[in-house]
Amino acid sequence: MHHIYHTEGIILGSRNFGESGKYYFIFTRHLGMIMASASGVRKMASKLRFILQDFSHLKIDLVLGKDFWRVTSASKTDFLEDIKKNTPALEVFYNLSRLLRRLLTGVEPNEELFNDFLSGLTVLEKYEAKEDLRNIEAIMVLRILNNLGYIGRIDDWDRLIKSPFEDGMLYEVSQNRTKILDQINKALRETQL
User: Fold this and answer.
1) Hey, which CATH number is domain 4-76, 3.40.190.10, 3.30.1310.20, 1.10.10.10, 2.40.50.140?
2) Tens digit of pLDDT for each residue in 69-79?
3) Residue 3 DSSP label
4) How many angstroms separate the first and last alpha carbons of the chain?
5) Cα→Cα distances 141→18, 35, 39, Å
6) For residues 80 and 42, what is the distance between their CA atoms, to the nearest angstrom?
7) Taking the domains of the chain in order of start, what are their residue ranges?
8) Is the pLDDT of residue 1 over 70?
9) How far apart are CA 158 and CA 63, in angstroms?
10) How many whole angstroms separate alpha carbon 58 and alpha carbon 10?
């Protein structure tokens, strides 16, 4: 009998397999980044069809098979429901999802990054103005890279990296945007991914 892992996760993307299955890239609170399958999920009769949607926050049950994870059940939460209705914010979410999928490999829990990412997304879904979204994206990328150890200590931006995510940070980013983007680009080059 397999152990069932109960956790919460954010679906960062998916791809079809077989006649009616899907693979999901899920950033989980307790397991880190995983790829999990759900057989039959594209069938009209599937109970998970409307729950397992890209860019959703879920409570999810998983089983580790011989070679891969399988989704056994899932339920929606109230988080991130508005972001799917906000096309400009959803584009930023998509970009951040691609970055996380690139940087996180294998099952390695990172609850601090998960909490920070979820907190940033709840701020992101409130905004539509292009400038605000660019600033939020810069903060979130900076925080992701810092959490993964790609950015060293920067006293000038310690508040952007360490303190709870809040709306007031947007002004600070707009004032230092060029320097922050330079730091992000330098860190991304050092990842060699």
Assistant:
1) 2.40.50.140
2) 999 999 999 88
3) P
4) 38
5) 34, 22, 33
6) 22
7) 4-76, 83-191
8) no
9) 39
10) 6
Question: Burial letters for 50-60: b for 16+ Cβ neighbours within 10 Å, e otherwise?
Answer: ebbebbbbbeb
- Partner residues linked to 76 by β-bridges: 58
Helix, coil or strand: residue 55: coil
Q: Is the pLDDT of residue 12 over 70?
A: yes
C-alpha 50/C-alpha 173 separation (Å) is: 37
Per the CB < 8 A criterion, the answer to whether 88 and 130 are in contact is: yes
Q: Does position 136 have pLDDT exceeding 80, yes or no? A: yes
2, 28 in Cβ contact below 8 A? no
d(CA 104, CA 98): 10
Backbone angles phi, psi at 70, to 5 degrees: -130, 140
* Distance, CA of 133 to CA of 141 (rounded, Å): 12
Give the DSSP letter string of 99-162.
HHHHH--SB---HHHHHHHHHHHHHHTT---HHHHHHHHHHHHHHHHHHTT-S---GGGHHHHH
